[in-house]
Design goal:
- The chain is α/β, with parallel strands linked by helices and 311 residues long.
- The protein has 2 domains: 212 residues, Rossmann fold, CATH 3.40.50.300; 78 residues, Alpha-Beta Plaits.
- The chain contains 11 helices and 14 strands.
- A 6-stranded mixed β-sheet has the order 6-7-8-3-9-10, sandwiched between helices.
- Helix 3 crosses helix 4.
- The longest helix is centred in the middle third of the chain and has 16 residues.
- The chain is elongated, with a radius of gyration of 23 Å.
- The chain starts with a strand and ends in a 13-residue tail after the last helix.
- Keywords: ATP-binding, Nucleotide-binding.
- Pfam families: ABC_tran.
- InterPro entries: AAA+_ATPase, ABC_transporter-like_ATP-bd, ABC_transporter-like_CS, P-loop_NTPase.
């Protein structure tokens, strides 16, 4: 799947701004970004539900949106609101979707039975969908999305309404699909989910601000991570806030995590700054994580550190 120069306007709002994407076969490709960053709009354009204002899209060898009708039979799409008929049973939901996809009856019966077993829904087959738990609804929605064995699966924030255990089980199911050859494009705002993806795109205000494997993105982070251990992490945060070259500050338990420009700050200069404010602290180097990458990619421009700050 490829997109080049993909843009979408809604009146004066540029929701997606000149995005280039390449998604390889059988990859789990993640979209990470804050609300309003253009994730859902991009997915809707890629699967042919929304026409781009500019740009070219090729999905499974088809031109989109020109060949969107042909594409529909080869893709699955699952939204965060779970497109289920709550007054139908689990079995009836899947039978209805099988009819929508024109599956032959024998194949539909076999496929439904297999999916009910795979997603732990066999004992719930006669239960109304509206009475299922969030995790059960999620599994049913995924079963419906893959019922016709799509080559490509689009998932728009599919875990936003479920508990951590259900999220973990859901991701295990995604990797089973990818291992079987299904290409998966999933949007999320959870960092731990983004780290699971083979490749990741970070969107901010409609722009693609980072693209690569999670480890590659962490290794390429242009800032240093420092961990500050002191008795008053909130005071330490206030002492470093708005200092030139300081990109981000976050208290993690009793520790302060500092993202800073490589030039201008080191352990000694951070300790010196905190000491000037009456705060005794030890500072050590930390490892970059995906949250650091996200903060760096979506931040406002940072003032450079003053010359000699690390002296």
């Amino acid at each position: 799947m490829q997109a080049r120069g993909l843009s979408r306007r809604f009146g004066n709002l540029l929701a997606v701004d000149n995005v280039d994407l390449t998604v390889g076969r059988a990859q789990v490709y993640g979209f990470l970004g804050p609300n309003g960053s253009g994730k859902s709009t991009t997915i809707r354009m890629l699967c042919g539900l929304l026409s781009p204002s500019a740009g070219a899209i090729e999905v499974l060898g088809l031109q989109v949106p020109q060949q969107a009708e042909q594409l529909k039979r080869r893709i699955g799409y699952m939204t965060q609101k779970f497109s289920l008929y709550e007054d139908l049973s689990v079995q009836e939901n899947l039978e209805f979707l099988a009819a929508v996809h024109d599956l032959p009856r024998a194949r539909a019966r076999t496929r439904i039975a297999g999916l009910l077993q795979r997603y732990w829904l066999t004992e719930r087959r006669n239960q109304l969908a509206g009475t299922l738990s969030g995790g059960q609804k999620q599994r049913l929605a995924l079963a419906g999305a893959v019922l016709h064995e799509p080559e490509l699966l689009f998932l728009d924030e599919p875990t936003s309404a479920v508990d951590p255990q259900s999220r973990r089980e859901f991701w295990d199911s995604l990797f089973q699909l990818a291992d079987a050859g299904t290409t998966i494009l999933v949007s999320t705002h959870y960092m731990d989910e983004a780290e699971r993806c083979h490749r990741l795109a970070i969107l901010d205000q409609g722009r693609l601000v980072a693209d690569g494997a999670p480890r590659e993105l962490c290794a390429a982070l242009p800032y240093a991570v420092w961990l500050v251990d002191c008795a008053a992490p909130r005071r330490a945060q206030q002492a470093l806030q708005d200092q030139p070259g300081i990109v981000a500050l976050a208290q993690i338990g009793a520790e302060l995590r500092v993202l800073a420009a490589r030039e201008g700050w080191d352990a000694a200069s951070l300790q010196h700054r905190l000491g000037d404010c009456g705060i005794a602290a030890t500072v050590r180097r930390g490892e970059a994580n995906l949250e650091d990458v996200f903060v760096a990619a979506t931040q406002k421009p940072v003032r450079p550190a003053a010359t000699g700050a690390a002296a």
